[in-house]
Amino acid sequence: MQWENLTAPEFAKAVKETGVCIFAMGICERHSDHLPIGQDFLAVHKIACLAAEREPAMVFPPWYFGQIFEAKCWPGAVSIGPELLFPLIEGVFDEIGRNGFKKIFILDGHGGNRFLVPFLAQLSLNKQKPYSVYMCRPFAGHERPEWDETLETKLHWHACECETSIAMAVHPELVKTDAIPKEPGEPLGRLKHLGEAFTGIGWYANFPEHYAGDASYASPEKGKKLLELRVNSIAEQIAAVKSDTVVPVLEKEFFDRVRNQAEGE
Fold first, then answer.
1. d(C-alpha 125, C-alpha 89), whole Å
2. What is the pLDDT of residue 216?
3. What are the CA-CA distances from residue 172 to residues 125, 157, 168, 259 (Å)?
4. CA 50 to CA 71: how far, in whole Å?
5. How many CB atoms lie within 10 A of CB 236?
6. pLDDT per residue over 72-106, tens digit each?
7. Which of 76, 77, 182, 220 could serve as 71's disulfide partner, Cβ 3.0–4.6 Å?
8. Is residue 2 predicted with pLDDT exceeding 70?
9. Nearest C-alpha neighbor of 95 from the set 145, 23, 40
10. What secondary structure does DSSP assign to 37-106, as a single string?
11. Distant-in-sequence contacts of 114-118, Cβ < 8 A, 24+ apart
12. Distance between CA 132 and CA 94 in Å, rounded?
């Protein structure tokens, strides 16, 4: 069920029937020259809707704000500073909760959110809320052996074989196959001297053209297989979240202890 498509009575009924709202997080950024700027949010919203058809849940309207500082050097990126981003997301979560949902399921569609989304889940322990936040397993579907069996290349990071294949299955009219780079996007390794140390410029150091992988191997047929794997994996996680009764109990226990500690009990 898509939030924006329902009437008010339909919405109220859906809240009671599902209890879970999927918050699919995408972004606006360059995806080489052959995929649309909105690739992440377009794809993840579609995937969320397909998963919610298999395991009934509400899907929040398309969302395209997150961590994308590393793409500010390219046209079309929409980058919101942390001083606004965190209150904005918290405000939206609070509105989802005010509308009756006790469980929010974050589905990330942008690799650059790999630190942001877990932190959003951890923030649920900062302040007690009338809802619980769950995070979908990163790269859901990739854990199935069929994922690697479907693909012919090894490097999959951005606008690559798998992402381009999924785009061909979800919105083929937006894929510019004639603009796929002739050479694969290989990491430049400009920060190899740092070893495992992390730095914010790390992505740009390896992939300054925002292309990582080889999209020339992509196809709609592969996209359909990969899409099916992702949707099935996500639907299974939605079902687990819907049936969960432990997290809310543990959160209440935790915050009771927080209050007792503050009161010196």
1. 15
2. 97
3. 41, 20, 4, 53
4. 29
5. 15
6. 999 999 999 999 999 999 999 999 999 999 999 99
7. 77
8. yes
9. 23
10. TTHHHHHHHHHHHHHHHHTT-EEPPPB--S--GGGTTSTT-----HHHHHHHHHHHHHHHHHTT-SEEEE
11. 114/138, 115/67, 116/66, 116/67, 117/25
12. 11
Helical spans, DSSP H, in 161-201: 161-170
Cβ 152 vs Cβ 217: under 8 Å: yes
Q: How many CA atoms lie within 13 A of 206 on its CB side?
A: 20
- Asked whether 66 and 112 are in contact (CB, 8 A), the reply is yes
Instruction: Work out how many domains the chain is built from and give that number.
Output: 1
Where would I find the H helices in 113-216?
116-122, 145-150, 161-170, 202-206
Contacts 24+ apart (CB under 8 A), 80-83: none
Encoded tokens for 167: 């785009």
- Quick check: 61 and 47 in contact, CB under 8 A? no
Residue 125 has pLDDT above 80, yes or no: yes
**pTM of the complete model:** 0.95
Both tokens of residue 45? Answer: 């919203």
- Contact 61/145 with Cβ under 8 angstroms? no
**Residue-range definition of the domain harbouring residue 251:** 3-262
CATH number at residue 137: 3.40.50.10310
Cβ(66)–Cβ(40) below 8 Å: no
